[in-house]
Description:
The protein is α/β, with parallel strands linked by helices. The chain contains 23 helices and 22 strands. A 5-stranded antiparallel beta sheet has the order 2-1-5-4-3. Strands 7-9-10-12-11 form a 5-stranded mixed beta sheet. A 5-stranded parallel beta sheet has the order 14-13-15-16-17, sandwiched between helices. The two termini are 106 Å apart.
Amino acid sequence: MEKNEKTNRGIYLRNRARTLRGLFVLAVLILIVVGWLSYNSALQLAGTSAWVAHTQETLLRLEQIRADIRAAEAGQRGYLLTGGPEYLSSYNTSIENIKTNFLMARRLTADNATQQRRLDVLGPLLDHRLALLKDVLDRDQQGQRSRAVDIIRLGEGRQLTETIRSVIGEIGYEERQLLERREQNQQASVRRTLFFVNLGGTVSVLLFVLVFFQLYREIVRHTTTQEKLEENRDFLDSVIENIPVMVFIKDAETLRIVRVNNACELVTGYSRHELIGKSDFDFFPAEQASWFIARDRKALEKGELVDIPMEKIQTRHLGERILYTQKIPLFGADGRPAYLLGLSEDVTERLLYQDQIELKNRQLEQRNREVVRANHLKSQFLASMSHELRTPLNAILGFSELLLDQTAGPLVEKQKRWVDFIQKGGRHLLQLINDILDLSKIEAGHVELNVESFQVEMAVPEVVSNIRPLLIEKKISLTSRIEPELFIQADRLRFKQILYNLLSNAVKFTPMGGQVAIEASRSGDQVRFTLIDNGIGIDPHHQHLIFEEFRQVESQDGAVKEGTGLGLAITRRLVEQHGGKIAVESELGKGAKFTFTLPLGRSGAAAAKIPSTAVPAPSKSKQPIVLVVDDEAQDRELLANYLSPEGYRIVTAASGEEAITKARDLRPDVITLDILMPTGSGWEMLHRLRNTPETAKTPVIVVSIVDQKQLGFSLGAAEYLVKPVSKEILLEALSRHIISGGKTSFTCLIIDDDQETLHLVSEILHSVGCAPVAIDNGKSALEFLKEHKVDVILLDLLMPEMDGFEVLRRLKESPELQDLPIVIITAKEITQAERELLERQSHALIQKGGKWEDQLLTSIREVIATEKPVAGKVQ
């Protein structure tokens, strides 16, 4: 291991040395670049300086030509005036200088074409001027002084001199401009040279500092690394020594132990001195040692971990121990295994505990099977109890209701009172059965929630109407404060059950003449319901008990109110299944305040009001036929006594085969069907009725003790009622499927230009037993109505040729058609004025979008419920 550490440290140092060499090379390159730039700048400075000197010399030559011309003229004048030879000598010298300087100027400006052209102009001028000077001197020397004077007086020489000076001035101006630019370039070169020289010096200093700092840091880092390596080595040694798992390291070649930890000494019973340098053959029998060595070789050859779940060794003082061992090869710098690391954990006690745990698990599994069986038996018992108790209760409640209605004859007051006692006791027993079954379903997770969005204002009065007799009996006033247009997303029936349980609980514990209040308001994405009473209150110490099963809190006088102690427990479970919460606030003698929340619903079609009023009894002119299918004679008699006085013709069947035969022969308007029959399953019969052509469209109302509504609806049941069923509920269910005169078909005229809408609405109407007639324009619809009668018109507003408003106007102008129910179905954006008009002249206004189909069904049922006998069918 130390060898590996040294190798790794050497690699690290070599990498750092490469880094330093790289930095040094980079510094040298930077210095070379800066030196080259400085040298180049110096060369540029020298070049610009030479050009400056060149231009200055050119200017000097030009000035010299100008001066020599003046000197030649002065020498000429001096000689003419005095005749002194010195003036003639000065004249000759100036002439020679002019020629020499002119040649030098031409040579100096050889690179400038513009200047050369000017010198081409200057040359002839100079020659002409020098010729005039010479001509004057020659005439004077020939004795023609007067002639020489005349040449001077003419002024030609002065004009030439001025022209020469002007040309020299132009050349000089150009040269001065060049001089200025070249001096600027010279200064820029000076600045650039100084910059690069300074930069080179600065960079050299910085590089020196950087290299020095890097070297210093490397020295510090090396020192720190060494210290950390020492710390890590100490830490690793401490971990290895104190880890509760046996750690041993073997040399890969000799497989002799080179290191062990404290756990090895404790488990094996051998000291470190006795273990290091030894092999397995020194401690274990040859066969066992060979097996261990083979596993070591396998790990080294494969170069990967070898897992040995269980190996037994004989220790010096602990006897036989069972070890869980892992062997891992440790590789050297050459990539070959250098050492073998072994990790062994003493699992003797763990295996013993594991055996005990497995025994416990088997016992728990057996108990779980017994619990499951007990639950299954409980479910069977509850189902059996439900059937066995509901069946006689159905007869008790049904026939006692018939007795109170005095269908079989008048009763004296005492008899009425006794029958009323029977009914109350039966209802109390029925509530007890229902509570127990509800709790069982909730605990088993079998409660199905038919969640929909509906308006609170419409649902609460239905519950209040059921609780009103109790309110009247105890003279309790009930007030409600419900936020307008408030909708909840919940199962309507379960919501009524929650509200009824809480209201009945409040009424039960509120004294005579007390007060109960219901409040409902929006709270974020929830609706908060609050029920407040001024009853006896609840001790704060007992409030956590009231939502538990079969728990009732005693009143102050020690009495316990009647009940099962299940109502609030079921209420809490139902609220929580809806995603809400329930809580109570109360003090003894100050009443109670129950609060629960349910999810906020959406307003619109999904929350349309569903009419709860029953349809009037069928007309006596044609008695609708109701086929009652039930194996219990008393139940058949009960339903017959419910329906016969209301104008229905009753036909009974005690078996499935009898029911199928009578249904085919008599073609009843409605069939009531019990599910539990000894001769066959009611589910099978329901399936046969739905799939027999003669009965496929006959509404089937399930009236049974079995509460499986989802299954019933999925098989085609039109209604599903759970026994015991009251007369009012049964009549209301039938009324939704039998229209006045006994007919079960209801003709709807659909006027819409959209074929998809015509098809969709026709399917919806078929589902409720209506006969749709589809027409795609208003003009044809009016022609159709002249010869045919319908029960309701479904009218679209946006149509070609004749829109819905015009159709509506003509219908209202016709005495024969003005009373027809009209339901408007449209996607048009309605103005306030149009809405007011349509609400006055139509039965309902439905705007497409959302779940408008539900609202359509509601409107059609409302029309069916209020249909007049004059409504007919298509002839």
